[in-house]
Amino acid sequence: MRTPRSTCHDLKGGRKPSISIHNVQLVGGRWLCPCGKNYKSKTSLSLHMRLECGKEPQFKCDHCPYKAYQKIALQKHTYCKHRRVVQTE
Question: Residue ranges of the domains in the chain?
């Protein structure tokens, strides 16, 4: 059985997408990133490749060494781990 591969197309106006998604496979209904992570939707995979894959987390905790790729993850971490510190500030 062949697995469909996505292709990278030029956008309107001749612009190229900010990330190339070559070698991305749809396996068992999941989009597979070359790094090994898999996603239900191609949009989620594209977001992962643009913001996370091969990059350091950009959101840093002010109270400990924790780092997150998404702001909401840092907010949840701060609430769960540093609730008392945040309430007293």
Answer: 23-53, 56-84
Is this model's pTM higher than 0.85 or not? no
What would be the CATH architecture of the domain defined by 56-84? 2-Layer Sandwich (3.30)
Distance, CA of 53 to CA of 9 (rounded, Å):
20
pLDDT digits (tens), the chain, 89 positions:
444 443 333 334 444 444 456 567 788 889 999 899 999 999 999 999 988 999 999 999 999 999 999 999 999 999 999 987 766 66
If phi > 0 it is left, if psi is from -120 to 50 it is alpha, else beta; for residue 23 that is left
Q: Which amino acid is located at 65 in the chain?
A: P
Q: CA distances (Å), 72 to each of 36, 60, 61, 75, 84, in order?
A: 23, 12, 12, 5, 19
